[in-house]
Amino acid sequence: YDDYTQAIRGVLDNFDTLYPQYKEQGYEVAGFVWWQGHKDQSAALASRYEQNLVHLIKSLRKDFNSPNAKFVLATGCGNPGRESFGLQIADAQLAVDGDKGKYPEFKGNVATVYSNPLSMGGSGNGHYGGNAETYMNVGEAMGKAMVELLKNPK
After folding, report:
1. What would the pLDDT profile of 60-95 be if each residue is shown by its tens digit?
2. Threshold 0.85, pTM exceeds
């Protein structure tokens, strides 16, 4: 959370310098994206992942004074094969989806992208085998999900 918010603040605190052409217009935090979960595959972290994810969404909106900011996340654990703690985390990530999840307050403003079918495999030590096409596919799906959420003024 600290690294994520520090990166955001680094841009927003220097907005006028980084984007002088928009200085007069200013900015609005309209949404957040989140693709994380792999390192939370332990009994202690996975058991609280859903509760913490709900808190994360609400905290980001509060901390950036953006109560209507949309939130898109991609599953990032147990793909492929969803098992054990990866299964718990993936299920928690799917539980917050505004259309199919169990949190009515997230309807129309939170979307979960299931990344398993987007994974192209690969070999190597990185997440998803370091396969660039996987990252492109997931990023594109998250972008499309955000566009759809932004159509909803709620």
Report:
1. 999 999 999 999 999 875 444 456 888 888 899 999
2. yes
Distance CA 28, CA 7 (A): 16
Q: What are the tens digits of pLDDT across the range 27-64?
A: 999 999 998 877 778 888 889 999 999 999 999 999 99
CA distance 5 to 65: 13
Q: Which two tokens stand for residue 104?
A: 């009515």
d(C-alpha 130, C-alpha 126), whole Å? 5
- Name every residue whose Cβ is closer than 8 Å to that of residue 23 and which is 6 or more positions away in sequence: 15, 16
How far apart CA 138 and CA 113 sit, in angstroms, is 8
95 touches 135 (CB < 8 A): no
H-helix or E-strand spanning residue 59: helix 49-63
CB 84 within 8 Å of CB 90: no
